[in-house]
TrEMBL record:
The keyword Oxidoreductase applies. Coiled coil: none annotated. GO terms for molecular function: oxidoreductase activity. GO terms for biological process: monocarboxylic acid metabolic process. This is 3-oxoacyl-[acyl-carrier protein] reductase. It comes from Streptomyces mashuensis.
C-alpha cells in the first residue's frame, strides 16, 4: 500500500487506460478523483470498484478541452481531499484523417484535448504540489509522437508537444521535488484504438516486434511506478510501452 494516504487525480478515468490506472493506484492505497467527460455510468462503475477496495473515490465531471475545467478540477480535488499528490493526464481523443481532409475543428479539438488540457491541468495542480514539496505528474502520450501512422498528423503533433511539455515541466518543477514523466503506449486494447486496429491490423502487426496488443493494465503498471514514492530519481522521461513498435 505504498500510496497510503495519497490522492490522485486521473483525467479520462471512465474507460480504457484511465480506468485501469485509477484502479491500479487504488489497489496500491491511493484515494482517487475520477474525471470523466460524458460516460457517467462507466465512471460510477469505476468509483464503485474503487470503493470496494476500501479507498475513497470522488467523481468530477468535465470536458478538459474546456479551458475553464482544469482549474475547476484542481479546486474540486483540494476541496474534497485537501491535497493532491499525483496527477495523471490521460484524457485524449483522436480525429484521424489525412491532413488535406482535416477540418480546423479536427485540428483544434485534438490539440485542445491532448495538449492544451494537460498544460492547463498541470498549471492548476502544480501550486498545491509545490507548496508541499512533493508531487508526481504522469502524462499519457502515444507511440504516434515518434512513429505516427497515416492520418495522425494532428494527434502526433499534440502528443509530440505533450512529450516536450513533460520535459519542460520536469525542469521547472524539479527544485520543488515534483517529478514529471510521460508514458507512451503503443496499440492498446481499448475502445479508442478499435478503429485503428480494425482498419490497419496487418500493417500494425508487421511493425510490432512482440506481435500482440497490450491490455490497459500494462500501461497502468508503468504509470504506477512513475507516480509512486519509490520513484525518486526519474523525471523528464518518456517511457515507451509499445511492444517494439517504435523500432520498426
Amino acid at each position: 500500500m505504498e500510496f497510503e494516504g495519497q490522492v490522485a487525480l486521473v483525467t479520462g478515468a471512465s474507460r480504457g487506460i484511465g480506468r485501469a490506472v485509477a484502479i491500479r493506484l487504488a489497489e496500491l492505497g491511493c484515494d482517487i478523483a475520477l474525471n470523466y467527460r460524458s460516460s457517467t455510468t462507466e465512471a460510477e462503475q469505476v468509483a464503485e470498484h474503487i470503493t470496494k477496495l476500501g479507498r475513497r473515490a470522488e467523481l468530477l465531471q468535465g470536458d478538459v478541452s474546456d479551458p475553464e475545467v482544469p482549474a475547476r478540477l484542481a479546486a474540486g480535488v483540494l476541496a474534497s481531499f485537501g491535497r493532491i499528490d499525483v496527477l495523471v493526464n490521460n484524457a485524449g481523443i483522436t480525429r484521424d484523417e489525412l491532413l488535406l481532409n482535416q477540418s480546423l475543428k479536427d485540428i483544434r479539438d485534438v490539440l485542445d484535448t491532448n495538449l492544451v488540457a494537460p498544460m492547463l491541468t498541470v498549471q492548476a495542480v502544480a501550486p498545491a504540489m509545490m507548496r508541499r514539496r512533493y508531487g508526481r505528474i504522469v502524462n499519457i502520450s502515444s507511440s504516434a509522437a515518434s512513429k505516427p501512422g497515416r492520418g495522425q498528423s494532428n494527434y502526433a503533433a499534440a502528443k509530440g508537444g505533450l512529450e516536450a511539455f513533460t520535459k519542460a515541466m520536469a525542469v521547472e518543477l524539479a527544485s520543488r521535488k515534483v517529478l514529471v514523466n510521460a508514458v507512451a503506449p503503443g496499440v492498446i486494447n481499448t475502445d479508442m484504438t478499435e478503429t485503428i486496429r480494425g482498419h490497419g491490423e496487418d500493417e500494425i502487426m508487421s511493425r510490432l516486434l512482440l506481435k500482440t496488443y497490450a491490455e490497459p493494465e500494462t500501461i497502468a503498471d508503468a504509470v504506477a511506478y512513475l507516480a509512486s514514492p519509490r520513484n525518486t530519481y526519474t523525471t523528464g522521461e518518456v517511457l515507451h510501452i509499445d511492444g517494439g513498435l517504435k523500432m520498426a
